Amino acid sequence: MFDPVQHLQKGDGLLIIDVQWDFCPGGLLPVPEGDRIIPVVNKWTEAALKNDIPVYFSRDWHPIAHISFKERGGDWPPHCIQDTDGAQFHPNLYMDRRILVITKGVRFDQDQNSVFDQTGFGHQLDHDGVKRLWVGGLAQDVCVLKSVLDARSSGLDVGVIREATRPIKEESGRRAIEEMIKAGATII
Ligand SMILES: [Zn+2]
Q1: Kind of pairing, strands 55-60 and 100-104?
Q2: What is the CA(178)–ligand 1 centre distance, in A?
Q3: How far is the CA of 5 from the centre of ligand 1 (A)?
Q4: Is the full-model pTM beyond 0.90?
Q5: How many angstroms is it from 38 CA to the middle of ligand 1?
Q6: Which residues are catalytically annotated?
Q7: Range of 68's domain?
Q8: Distance CA 24, CA 97 (A)
Q9: pLDDT (tens digit, 9 = 90+) per residue, 128-161?
């Protein structure tokens, strides 16, 4: 395991995407081994907070019968429905009041796979002076991919923490890594 402290410097931020019950084994839209990332994520979170690096946790937070669900013609089984147990952050995830939570997926008319999509997150990163974003979370081939691509488009340096993310499908996970590298992200 990489030592996060070696990587973290002033101007960095840590973004951990959607480490919620429903995306872990036993949840409604489980990512294989999704919970295995938690010890790595916790190590990064604690190191970042100790070094005054801002930490952001996003959560998928859908209305009942969201447009992204199969019953409405979307791609996914129902998941992360607002205020349900499945929508909570995984209980083993290290939490701290300094962590900013970003809520996405609340729109009735569309999905928001990227943490940057209409959340104002880019504005917050500017405010916090973040120039480089370290990214982990779920799922590697969906929300992590889309968020990393948006981060790169907005001119941020991006490091993806390989051990802190897992894909829904192995093959699309591999493609996601290739796409992120092509977009200029560093994979560690
Ligand atoms: Zn969702």
Answers
A1: parallel
A2: 23
A3: 32
A4: yes
A5: 20
A6: 18, 104, 143
A7: 4-187
A8: 23
A9: 999 999 999 999 999 999 999 999 999 999 999 9
Closest CA to 18 of 176, 104, 138, 166: 138
The burial class, CB within 10 Å (0-12 / 13-18 / 19+), for 74 is middle
Query: Would you say residue 9 has pLDDT above 60?
Result: yes
User: How many structural domains are present in the chain?
Assistant: 1
pLDDT digits (tens, 9 = 90+) for 48-66: 999 999 999 999 999 999 9
pLDDT given for residue 27 in this prediction: 98
CA atoms within 13 A on the CB side of 106: 10
Q: What is the CATH number of the domain that holds 161?
A: 3.40.50.850
